[in-house]
Amino acid sequence: MGPGEDPERAVLREVAEETGLRGARVVRRVAVDGRPHPETGQPRLTTYLLLDAPPDGPAEWEHRAQGDGGDAGMRFVCRFAPLPLAYPLADAQDAHLRRVDPRWAAPGEVAGRPDEARPLS
């Protein structure tokens, strides 16, 4: 997130830069999570947002990341995964799917995880 950039604007910019997907729409904030970074242990605040993808977009595609970040030029292979997920995502990035729809919880997910998360209405 850039200086003065709100999470909603940042996520749409990041989605476009890293996936090439344009026309996504923020539906709402789902949660704010205050767990430390898994590699550095440094404090980290993550805002989880529910997005709608454009209805006429592809199901699978490849994209080279744009922008000036560390991932610029990296090749991403993108696809939409059906929910519920077959496996939990790395770093518990799927921890708040159940807040959108309880049926979307990944197998083995413990209700209430992570403890540092604050639900949003």
What attributes characterize this protein structure?
single chain; 121 residues; alpha+beta; three-stranded antiparallel sheet; globular
Question: How would you describe this structure to a colleague?
Answer:
This protein has 2 helices and 5 strands, in the order αββββαβ. The strands form 2 sheets. Strands 2-1-5 form a 3-stranded antiparallel beta sheet. A two-stranded antiparallel sheet has the order 3-4. It starts with 6 loop residues before the first helix and ends with a strand. The protein is globular. The model is unreliable at 112-119 (pLDDT under 50). Helix content is 14%, strand content 24%. It has 121 residues and is an alpha+beta fold.
Summarize the helices and strands and which ones pair or pack.
Blueprint: H1 7-19, E1 25-33, E2 46-52, E3 60-64, E4 75-79, H2 97-100, E5 117-119
